[in-house]
Amino acid sequence: MGHNVPKLNDPSLLIEKAYVNGEFVDAASGETFEAADPSSGKKIATCPEFTKQDTEKAIAAAEEALKSWRKTTGRERATILRKWYDEMQKNAADIATLITWENGKPLNDAKGEATYAANFFLWFSEEAAHAHGETVPASVPGNRVHTIKQPVGVCGLITPWNFPAAMITRKIAPALAAGCTVVAKSPGETPFTANALAELSRRAGVPKGVVNFVTAMNNTAEVGETLTTDPRIRKISFTGSTNVGKLLMKQAAGTVKKVSFELGGNAPFIVFDDCADLEAAVAGAIACKFRSSGQTCVCANRIYVQDGIYDKFSEKFVEKVKNFKVGYGFDDGVTHGPVIHDRAIAKVDAHVKDAEKKGGKVLVGGQKLPDLGSNFYAPTVITGATNEMQIATDETFGPVAGLFRFKTEKEVVALANDTNVGLAGYFYSSNVNRIYRVAEALEVGMVGVNTGLISDAAAPFGGVKESGFGREGSKYGIDEYSIVKTITIGGVESELQG
Question: Is the dihedral of CA 338, 195, 223, 70 positive or negative?
């Protein structure tokens, strides 16, 4: 496919380096890796292949910067985060271009992500000045007890490629707001959005060493292990797969780091026959399932539709999917782009073949689209989905919707909860009693009722079970980067002197 190379308004935002101690640097070895446009497979540019030693320099820079950064007031940190937000707003078009170029999602989606990502800087600029301690009524006479919040220290952050901007800002913003410094490992597939954010941090006046971005592709495991085992790092925050999360947790145990993990999901999306508006439920399911071509951790993975409305729902759902326009994210009218790489294509294809073999019926899609490029797969709807299929048990992370039938509320909640993960869950109903009952019964960290989109910087984001722990965004987000210190003053006499 002949694609025009995207143009940036500010070409200096495409940076082929890593960012350490306020400088854009190469790896000591001079080695690099290539990042490619998933739509065309063509090289975008290269980035440094960092090693353990390169990463240790970034950790040292963050440790040094922590000495002065932790002493700044919340108000000073707020001002700098606000400036970083302003820089992102000013350069939003270029951030969106970089996201579409390296991730493949359509430009409209990328613009939405650029706004969402910037909003974390805005939100935590407002939280930075509000890290309140408490006065505690002591039970020992003569003691006075109070608490203060302090930064946990240097933080290692590891983020995935599916939201090249938002996954990063959602971690960096609260860390900086709390007074921490960071070493962030950007995704090998999408390093350029991260590098643009690094340059914007410099323009916003973030002091050197407070934010460091390390890049690696082949050495990712080595860099990850360096971050999780170095005693100077006191906190690890990771978004990615459950298996990698388990490995990082094991590694971080050696130095007992504070950890927060946002791992894989397998989101149920339930449509009850008492939903007030079937069109709205279809639209919600479409947005929830096919956003970013199904490559989000909160995507609907299993769509359960009640018996009485199943056929009607399927018909409307398929109609919508037939109207999608799959293609290059920069082309007009394109609604859905490629998946990220050949491994993703292979998994999607295997899930569809497995479903067909076990009696599922493909109503639309079900095949690769090699004419568009090697990473394109047709958005797919499968009816007659059952529990034995891989699409029921594994997170597809691709543009495949399996529609499952159910009869009763009790049955569907049991099915929804029959998984070792629990990130998001969704359902449509207009019955107030049912809304409370089902929302409370779903074993997930986040529930969407009568909506398929739940992300908001103001709302706590995170899961239960093997989807991880800790919350991002919201007033709780800053707690993940803070410690509570108790100060007890003894021997305070109750009698006034003199």
Answer: negative
Residue pair 399/377 in contact (Cβ under 8 Å)? The answer is: yes
Q: How far apart are CA 27 and CA 249, in angstroms?
A: 27
Instruction: Return d(Cα 86, Cα 122) in angstroms, integer.
Output: 9
User: pLDDT for 328-344, tens place per residue?
Assistant: 999 999 999 999 999 99
Choose, from 262, 395, 466, 472, the residue flagged as catalytic.
262
**Contact between 482 and 152 (Cβ < 8 Å):** yes
SS (H, E, C) 463-476: CEECCEECCECCCC
Q: What does the block give as tokens for 476? A: 């709780």
> For residue 214, what are the CA distances in angstroms to 140, 164, 253, 306, 439?
50, 14, 22, 48, 40
pLDDT (tens digit per residue) in 69-84:
999 999 999 999 999 9
Contact 446, 458 (CB under 8 A): no
Q: Which residues pair with 362 in a beta bridge?
A: 382
Tokens of 415: 């099915």
373, 161, 337, 349: CA torsion to nearest 10: 60
User: Reading across the β-sheet that carries 482-489, which strands appear in turn?
Assistant: 135-136, 144-151, 482-489
For the stretch 258-283, pLDDT in tens is 999 999 999 999 999 999 999 999 99
Here the tokens at position 337 are 């782009």
**How far, CA to CA in Å, does 120 sit from each of 228, 284, 320, 340, 390?**
25, 24, 32, 25, 35
Could you give the CA distance from residue 252 to residue 229 in angstroms, rounded to a whole number?
A: 6
Token readout for 381 is 């709807």
Model pLDDT for residues 15-74, shown as the tens digit of each residue:
999 999 999 999 999 999 999 999 999 999 999 999 999 999 999 999 999 999 999 999
User: What global pTM score does this model have?
Assistant: 0.97
Verify whether residue 480 is a known catalytic residue: no
| Nearest-angstrom CA–CA distance, 271 and 429 | 7
Closest to 374 in 3D by CA, of 338, 325, 420, 418: 338
**How many CB atoms are closer than 10 A to CB 185?**
26
Q: How many residues does the chain have?
A: 498
Distance CA 348, CA 372 (A): 17
Q: Cα–Cα distance between 260 and 157 in angstroms, integer? A: 10
- The first and second tokens of residue 215, run together, are 């890049």
